[in-house]
Amino acid sequence: GTHSFTVKWPLVTGEETEFIWVEVLSIQDGEVDGRLANEPAFNKELKVRDRVQFPLADSVDWLYVQDGKMVGGYTVKVLQKQGAER
């Protein structure tokens, strides 16, 4: 019942930073190995599903699905709340 492990990672391209979800394939020795879960807006060299590696400490959010419910996803919850208030 637990699946879809993802972390949000700040992808820096030149002077632009975008926060992008990464599907976690593994975490070893503090390093995330994963695939981009969405298309980067600024980085034209990477695309959705491309493989990336970065320090777990660089992650700014995390989430997974357990029994059909999202666990974590704190930035998602803030955006959902803001949308509901509008």
Describe this structure in words.
The chain is globular and about 35 Å long. The chain is built from one helix and six strands. A hairpin with a 2-residue loop joins strand 2 (16-28) and strand 3. It has 86 residues and is mostly beta strands. The longest helix is centred in the last third of the chain and has 12 residues, at 74-85. The model has no long low-confidence stretch (mean pLDDT 92).
Structural class by helix and strand composition: mainly beta
Q: What's the gyration radius in Å? A: 14 Å
Order of helices and strands: EEEEEEH
Distance between the termini: 34 Å
The number of E-state strands comes to: 6
The main sheet comes to:
6 strands, antiparallel
Point out poorly predicted stretches: none
Given the structure, what is the number of helices?
1
What is the approximate shape? Answer: globular
Mean pLDDT: 92
**Amount of helix:** 10-25%
Strand order of the largest sheet: 4-3-2-1-5-6
Strand content: over 45%
Secondary structure topology:
Blueprint: E1 2-13, E2 16-28, E3 31-36, E4 51-55, E5 61-66, E6 69-72, H1 74-85
Antiparallel strand pairs: 1-2, 1-5, 2-3, 3-4, 5-6
Structural descriptors:
53% strand, 1 helix, mainly beta, 14% helix, 86 residues
